[in-house]
């Protein structure tokens, strides 16, 4: 087993959301957006790898992590995007990173506010797919009216250790590589969230937000938004992703105006957690290209 992992970065409230940040002093800034059932801590190790390149700010989306529930109960992709835009208006223009749900949110942010996004790095982004894998089908079931609430209520009686093990087995290519400290952290965080009155609503609402995007048509469709992204874009997929089909990279390559595609043969759905050094190297390359004014040259 590898050495003891670093502690999670300290957090504070910025407006209506909780944000974990690396120390100031790097030449540029970055904002990191987690996926469904995730939190800012999903980015801890990647932020450590990049701390000399960017001052990192990882957001807990509304209702997730240590962020409070939104007053209006809105967990749509658009609402999450507004929360990220609010943070980026505080940080100033930044390199934007998103995983899964956070990838979908980040695409909308980059399309709507190009002035705030210097580059866009997406790790297994949850973009609409006509042939969803088993994981998204489960998300759709959880998002079904009444069924989602019933499932969430029953899951509370399943031990936190069992729920976390099932979740990690789904998103990591090899769960045996999860450090015991990170596993313990995740279990303790789930126990804390079990006591929050808004936890189930946040999960169900965000799941419904993803499903709604899969059926959205017109110029607000996420693929239409992707075609309007001006920022140089890096998209990373894991070959063993059980939630998002790596084959979606081909459509992304045809859609994003300036894009480089990377397929990691030994990663799953959360490559930034599984192999942060590799993801950091690819992101550092993109940041350097952006600094020099060069667009990604393809995979």
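^ Assign residues to that structure.
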């Amino acid at each position: 087993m590898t050495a003891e992992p670093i502690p999670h970065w300290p957090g504070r409230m910025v407006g209506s959301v909780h944000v974990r940040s690396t120390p100031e002093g790097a030449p540029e800034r970055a904002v990191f957006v987690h996926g469904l059932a995730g939190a800012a801590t999903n980015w801890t190790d990647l932020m450590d790898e990049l701390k000399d390149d960017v001052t990192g700010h990882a957001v807990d989306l509304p209702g997730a992590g240590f962020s409070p529930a939104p007053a209006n109960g809105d967990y749509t992709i658009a609402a999450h995007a507004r929360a990220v835009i609010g943070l980026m208006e505080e940080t100033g223009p930044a390199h934007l990173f998103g995983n899964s749900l956070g990838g979908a949110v980040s695409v909308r942010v980059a399309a709507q506010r190009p002035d705030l996004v210097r580059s866009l790095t997406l790790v297994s982004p949850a973009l609409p797919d006509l042939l969803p894998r088993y994981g998204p089908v489960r998300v759709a079931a959880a998002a079904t009216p009444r069924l989602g609430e019933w499932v969430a209520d029953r899951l509370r009686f399943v031990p936190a250790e069992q729920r976390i093990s099932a979740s990690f087995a789904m998103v990591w290519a090899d769960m045996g590589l999860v450090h015991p400290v990170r596993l313990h952290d995740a279990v303790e965080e789930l126990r804390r969230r079990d006591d929050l009155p808004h936890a189930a609503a946040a999960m169900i609402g965000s799941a419904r937000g993803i499903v709604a995007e899969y059926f959205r048509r017109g110029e607000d469709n996420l693929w239409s938004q992707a075609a309007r992204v001006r920022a140089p874009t890096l998209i990373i997929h894991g070959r063993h992703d059980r939630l998002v089909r790596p084959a979606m990279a081909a459509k992304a390559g045809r859609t994003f105006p300036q894009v480089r595609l990377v397929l990691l043969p030994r990663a799953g759905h959360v490559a930034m957690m599984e192999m942060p050094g590799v993801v950091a190297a690819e992101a550092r390359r993109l940041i350097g290209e952006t600094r020099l004014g060069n667009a990604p040259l393809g995979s």
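The beta strands are 11-14, 17-21, 28-33, 54-60, 94-99, 117-123, 233-238, 259-264.
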